[in-house]
Amino acid sequence: MTHTINLTVNGTRREVALDDPRTTLLDLLREGLGLTGAKKGCDRGQCGACTVLVDGRRVNSCLALAIGLDCAEVLTVEGLADGDRLHPVQQAFIDHDGMQCGFCTPGQIMSAVGLIAEAQAGDDPERIREAMSGNICRCGAYAGITAAVREATAVLTESERRERA
Amino acid sequence: MNRFDYVQPATLDEAVAAASEPGAAYLAAGTNLVDLMKTGAMRPDRLVDITRLADLSAIEELPDGGLRIGAMVRNSDLAHDPRLAGRFPMVAEALLSGASAQLRNAATVGGNLVQRTRCPYFADPSNACNKREPGAGCDAKGGESRSHAVLGFSEACIATNPSDFCVPLVALDATVEIAGSTGRREVALDEFHLLPGSTPERETVLEPGDLVTAVRLPGEAAGYGARSRYVKLRDRTSYAFALVSVAAALRIEDGRIADARLALGGVAAKPWRARAAETVLKGAAPDPDAFAEAAEAALAEARPSGDNAFKIDLARRVVRRALAYAAVGSPSRVPALPGSVFASEGEFEHA
User: Fold this and answer.
1) Which one of A1, A47, A55, A57 would you mutate to disrupt binding with B, by most B Cβ within 10 Å of its Cβ?
2) Using CA atoms, how far apart are residues B52 and B56, in angstroms rounded to an integer?
3) CA of A51, closest CA in chain B: separation in Å?
């Protein structure tokens, strides 16, 4: 039996027919919608490479069944930049060398976007490292990742302050 | 993963009816269930999605000063809720010591209570497991068993319960609310999980169709809010299951321990309330001697189930450390590294 769900993916409304209830959000994004930014690393919620935002919260898309996500808003790394202008988290990862091979990077970046929105870690490197522990980087680019998240936090906090002023 | 029917009931009664059929399983976030379906360890014929049910997502303050937490409340929302963090700080610390931020954003209160063991022999169907297939045998025994139980295990099963959240909950006398085909009932969390005995496939008191709808913390438990800690030893500082964890809480009056609560995680098939140790502590001065005596009492019955004798002495040390931390007082905010011995605020006696 085919189930139809409605999703908003990177701002675009999509009607998606699922012919198999086993389809995870990750498989739907990659295989169904051609959005290959989110990566399939472990496929078991252990590596974080599949991290996307669902209704504004970072989650492991490999463990979420798509069929349960009717009406959800999904944001993937493909939806972050504004045209040619990179999102501050993307820019900070480049500026601080927060990657080596790049496989985990879309998950790291989406996780960082979620972390900054959660507003729990602030500027504390230890809290940032703890809050990013669900994203494994086998190249070991953690030092650059932590620096990038700190800078992006500062940039986003400042732009939010200016918007309010 | 096996094929399954998927239903999304609109009401609790419909959900219970749909899940009462043999082979059905409730689906909330799926962070544990979907993973085990991928390995083939769980093969439900029907998933009953409860994420759209009304009334399961509330956190309510109770007249007695306690808290009622709906089963669909997400771990991260609960951990950061000031009503929890203010009065039951070790529960917040335990939640934040578990899993990763992504998993905590999805995983639910009810799901945490019914999550399955992380025994690798259970998760991989190519191994014999009495829990997965009654009578099949147990490949964990004589296998890689350093993380397995040292209390309450049986010939049939040496697996542990992986929950952090349940450890402070059982220490604080939490109650589980259950809806089922015969109506509603409630059970003390200490009686919710079952020791394996000869039926390790039966992990909780839940009957087919039963759904955890809420967890309640009694107001009396807030009396421990000023001096309580959750300490968790694991193979890495973050994003790992406990080898041993301890929830310790004290009420100190006139320099003496008026009352104590102690529970251990990672040591048994259920969150392990250490009542004998609580009795030892009551009336004693909060000093290293009393904490050492309590640690002995807590582990008096412990024995290795495999390659894990080290866990017994480790557990004694974590009990002493957690009690020492609790005596100093709860930190004003959950530490940067929740549950870690590498991140303690304030002065404390080294255990």
Assistant:
1) A57
2) 9
3) 8
ipTM: 0.97
Distance from the Cα of A31 to chain B's closest Cα (Å) equals 17
Q: Residues B161-206: pLDDT tens digits? A: 999 999 999 999 999 999 999 999 999 999 999 999 999 999 999 9
Instruction: Provide the residue range defining the domain that includes B322.
Output: 226-328
Confidence (pLDDT) at B343 = 64
Where residue B254 sits, what CATH number does that domain have? Answer: 3.30.390.50
How far apart (Å, rounded) are the C-alpha atoms in residues B132 and B136? 8
- A63 contacts B29? CB cut-off 8 A: yes
Determine the distance in angstroms separating the CA of B56 from the nearest CA of chain A, rounded to an integer: 17
- Residue B118 domain-assigned? no
Q: Is the pTM of this model over 0.95?
A: yes
Give the separation between CA B182 and CA B161, rounded to whole angstroms. 28
Other beta carbons within 10 Å of B288 = 15
Whether residue B318 is contained in a domain is answered as yes
What is the token pair recorded at A151?
């800078």
Q: What is the mean pLDDT of chain A?
A: 97
Which residue of A26, A52, A130 is the best one to mutate when testing the B interface, meaning the one whose CB has the most B CBs within 10 A? A130
The verdict on a CB contact (< 8 Å) between B6 and A3 is yes
Kindly determine whether residue B238 and residue A58, on different chains, have CB atoms separated by under 8 Å.
Answer: no
pLDDT digits (tens, 9 = 90+) for A117-149: 999 999 999 999 999 999 999 999 999 999 999
Q: How far is CA A65 from CA A23, B6, B118, B218, in A?
A: 6, 11, 21, 35
Residue B253 within any structural domain of the chain: yes
- Mean pLDDT of residues grouped by 10 in chain B (351 residues)? 96 97 97 98 98 95 98 98 96 98 98 98 98 98 97 98 98 98 96 98 98 98 98 96 98 98 98 98 98 98 98 98 97 95 58 46
The burial class, CB within 10 Å (0-12 / 13-18 / 19+), for B81 is middle
**What does chain A come to in residues?**
165
Enumerate domains of chain A plus CATH numbers.
3-79 (3.10.20.30), 88-164 (1.10.150.120)
CB atoms A58 and B343 under 8 Å: no
| B75 occurs within a structural domain | no
Q: Which residues of A touch B92 (CB under 8 A)?
A: none
Question: Structurally, how many domains does chain B consist of?
Answer: 1
